[in-house]
Amino acid sequence: MSQWNQVQQLEIKFLEQVDQFYDDNFPMEIRHLLAQWIENQDWEAASNNETMATILLQNLLIQLDEHLGRVSKEKNLLLIHNLKRIRKVLQGKFHGNPMHVAVVISNCLREERRILAAANMPVQGPLEKSLQSSSVSERQRNVEHKVAAIKNSVQMTEQDTKYLEDLQDEFDYRYKTIQTMDQSDKNSVIMNQEVLTLQEMLNSLDFKRKEALSKMTQIVNETDLLMNSMLIEELQDWKRRQQIACIGGPLHNGLDQLQNCFTLLAESLFQLRRQLEKLEEQSTKMTYEGDPIPMQRTHLLERVTFLIYNLFKNSFVVERQPCMPTHPQRPLVLKTLIQFTVRLRLLIKLPELNYQVKVKASIDKNASTLSNRRFVLCGTNVKAMSIEESSNGSLSVEFRHLVSLGCHMVTEELHSITFETQICLYGLTIDLETSSLPVVMISNVSQLPNAWASIIWYNVSTNDSQNLVFFNNPPSATLSQLLEVMSWHSNRRHSINTC
């Protein structure tokens, strides 16, 4: 069975990882259409031999032309269009640098082998065991259940708010009717009965207002507890799994589930905020002594707004850590003057935010307090997040052409890439900032082994994702941790040699 056929039979969590490293440099359509031919070529050797790389690139284009000829007979217009576009892109991008296409394809095949090995690798080390706790999946199910319950409760208070509005309209109509009655009618039995009815309605209105505010308070309390315990803890666990995956550990997943929870909570909180605004409108039209709305609404609105701010601040994450396309197995090690990619994601997916959130990338934002070595980013460092940017429909942005500039690199010195943006939504302005895991800058590939050792040391030893002074007083890594990391890399080499 070909390697590509094996890949296609993987579970969805592994297929998502495969999807991440296929882009315009080497489209997945080509990998699929020419699977067997691609696997039969020695791309790794060609990546160091320009003549061989030139021949392979020419043969790749010939293979595409032959496939295009077969497809043309079938009159598949969409496929014909896509293949022509891909051929034009490949020829234009790699014509002057054929060795680069060999590097890209070689890396993709290598990553496929690594993922296949990971899919068949049993959980055994202490680090992996800590990430595979059954309590984690149980907590995730509890989070999803509680988020759904909160969403349902907000729908119920929506009905309560509408009922209050109808009740108040009826009260207002009856009250105005009494005001228009003749003076003689106001002393009648009918008038007295109408006044009693109005008093009962007012009592009911007061009770319903208090009940609605009580339910909203309960929702806010439950949301606060959920966010500051289970949901944030779940997010921190995902970040730790990402750390371990960066140094060769098991592939991480679960971000789609987190996005669903963050988005539902955000929708619920915004809906609750609108309900509180409606209550204020109702109180402005009609208030009375002991009216609970003026006494409780302001405090509740402040709490809801604070929860929205907190939810957004935690929702801005680095989905894919900085990595040079030429060294996909060595993320977080960046060489000056070489492009690297990084992907950001907002876990609150609202249509109103599509193309409205611009993200700015910078490096060593606080370098003056950490080091005398300062780096800058070149390339397009401001981009808008969009749903169309990702294959899974998330609200994300990928920086693909960032380059770092600097000098005097030290492989035991950590740097941070920071991302900033501002959310303007429904009258709220929220400033967001997140950072990549610490990166090591190098100026020569000879520094790569030491830099990679620093990355492993850091991510094995600490859960802190922003300890840039880690190497001022680094802790010792345990033997079991080092042996486990070595086993991951041994499995990688094994998969490359045998597949």
TrEMBL record:
Coiled coil: 262-289
GO biological process per UniProt: immune response; signal transduction
Cellular localization per UniProt: Cytoplasm; Nucleus
InterPro entries cross-referenced by the UniProt entry: p53-like_TF_DNA-bd_sf, STAT, STAT4_CC, STAT_N_sf, STAT_TF_alpha, STAT_TF_CC, STAT_TF_DNA-bd, STAT_TF_DNA-bd_N
Keywords: Coiled coil, Cytoplasm, DNA-binding, Nucleus, Phosphoprotein, SH2 domain, Transcription, Transcription regulation
Record's keyword annotation contains Cytoplasm: yes
Superkingdom of this protein's organism: Eukaryota
Matches recorded under SUPFAM superfamilies: p53-like transcription factors, STAT, Transcription factor STAT-4 N-domain
GO cellular component: cytoplasm; nucleus
Gene Ontology molecular-function annotations: DNA binding; DNA-binding transcription factor activity
Domain spans labelled STAT transcription factor protein interaction: 2-122
Main location: cytoplasm
Family annotation (PANTHER family): SIGNAL TRANSDUCER AND ACTIVATOR OF TRANSCRIPTION
Protein name: Signal transducer and activator of transcription 4
Organism: Prolemur simus
